[in-house]
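Supplementary Note 3. Input sequence used for the single-chain structure prediction.
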Amino acid sequence: MYSRRKFIKTSALGASIATFASVALGKALARSDGPQKSNFPIVISTWNFGVAANKEAWKILSKGGRALDAVEAGVKIPEADLHNHSVGRAGYPDRDGHVTLDACIMDEAGNCGSVAGMEHIAHPISVARLVMEKTPHVMLVGDGATQFAVENGFKKEKLLTAESEKAWKQWLKKSVYKPVINSENKLYQPGSLPGGKDNHDTIGMLAIDAKGNISGACTTSGMAWKMHGRVGDSPIIGAGLYVDNEVGGATSTGVGEEVIRNVGSFLVVELMRQGYSPEDACKEAVHRIIKKKPETAKNIQVGFLAINKKGEYGAYAIQTEFTFAVCNDQTQDLLIDGKSFY
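The predicted structure, written as discrete structure tokens, is reproduced below.
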């Protein structure tokens, strides 16, 4: 017979279990949702010149500024660097002597803008942002992009510097187009012209601001000595750059054709959505490129850089010597060697 005493004991035991479970659940929620040490703000970017770019972005992030403003300001540093022959105004020209620039930008709401094959404008990233904010389009190209920039107050100028023109004229003597791993600037004989392996190609930048919002930017002058009209991955949303504020962001560098074929940055973000760490997502994207074209992959470089919503970051490349820069409240000039397949 179920007595009143047994009922009271059972009820007391049940209450105790319920209380314990409630406390345990409360502790679990505190661990997962409660106050934690923030990884924000943070900014990461590709290659050695990312260090200086990150520092500029950090000026905005450290004051509580928006990630979108930070990435635009950051990548403008290599765009303006006259010693950088693979990004911005001092970029090496195509085989016809035209300096054509590509860039894209994307914010936390999925808004994006880009320009491709644009001439005569020194800061394509800022034009890309205006495309995002002032037009119903995502991408403007060629003369249309230049026209739009001028109509919005950008100065039209000659971008082919004396140093870049010298390199182009020397290349014309043999006109051999063969991109060399880790530097389009090694398309000439090493040591014969200014530049070297520290001057790579694209700068891709990803930032998370103090509010936890993610934005990204990507800008380049593209492959040196390319065919006139060639466009790589850098201005293509989903290839050279992709941001999903619920998951994270990714950017790429290297031979853009292979990134486009695999929609690389979008792939990396989707892999992170499935639970991959940033490094593992980049690694899987690289492996897919290698699997599809193993012989081609032996002689090219492609690298991915990613950050997730927690502020965790990682990178992976086909070849060694891919570096990326990190800047947060602990370090301003951290440069990391990315892992690689070869």
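The chain has a mean pLDDT of 87. The radius of gyration is 24 Å.
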